[in-house]
Amino acid sequence: MTQTQDEQKREVAQAAIQHIPIGSIVGVGTGSTANYFIDELAKVKHKIDGAVASSDDTAQRLKSHHIQVLELNNVSEIPVYVDGADEITEHLHMIKGGGGALTREKIVAATAKKFICIADQSKLVSVLGEFPLPIEVIPMARSYVARELVRLGGHPVLREGFTTDNGNIILDVHGLKILNPAELEMDLNHITGIVTNGLFAKRGANMLILGTNNGVRIINI
Ligand code: 5RP
Fold first, then answer.
1. 96 CB under 6 A from ligand 1?
2. Residue 2's pLDDT is what?
3. What DSSP character marks residue 191?
4. Residue nearest to atom 10 of ligand 1 (CA)
């Protein structure tokens, strides 16, 4: 039976709930798949101690469901972080940041013990890079960073009219065929003016819950 992308997103969000420890603080990602997860989390909110949000939008949606939103600095442990991805490989390396929340997503993911990625099957790829790689940049460094990205073989495009929750801009880098995501992630981290790049390879996901036409498939690393 063919399932729409939205049906797959809802199904993976429902499946993720089974992996949330009772009484824990949950790290919550950003985007349409994460939104389905928030709606599912609301149904079991009495079983968790609260949530840490990866964006202002996510915080707002959690609050609208009367789920307590905690400051990351006041939380000592996040057993599980649940988030979507723009692209993910079988090695559970990802491109994220299509929604522009990559920096806070990377911070919450770094804090969490386990990263569960929830995604519909269109997100699974063999090589990362078809989706333009989002890079959050300090505004005054835009031109310098863009030149450095061209030197790396990319075609950076400014995300027009968009400012991140941290007051920065996003450059979306087209034309990259990312064969070694961990190496590129590190190289990008060394460019002055880049706040965060959207490669999640050094800290990839631990589990992928993938929506398919044959139901949910789980890949563990
Ligand atoms: C936001 C993200 C999202 O996880 C990513 O863009 C996937 O979004 P969606 O679930 O809407 O496809 O990284 O910054």
1. yes
2. 87
3. S
4. 33
DSSP 44: T
Q: Is 172 helix (H, G, I), strand (E, B) or coil?
A: strand
* 105 classed as catalytic: yes
Instruction: Judge if the beta carbon of residue 148 lies within 6 A of ligand 1.
Output: no
Using one digit for the tens of pLDDT, what is the confidence trace for 113-149? 999 999 999 999 999 999 999 999 999 999 999 999 9
DSSP symbols for 56-96: HHHHHHHHHTT--B--GGG-S-EEEEEE--SEE-TT--EE-
Name the active-site residue from 105, 136, 148, 185.
Answer: 105
Burial of 60 from C-beta contacts in 10 A (0-12 / 13-18 / 19+):
exposed
CA dist list (Å): 124 to 11, 19, 66, 94, 202: 16, 21, 33, 9, 18
Q: Which of 122, 129, 124, 120 is nearest to 152 (CA)?
A: 129
DSSP state of 158: E
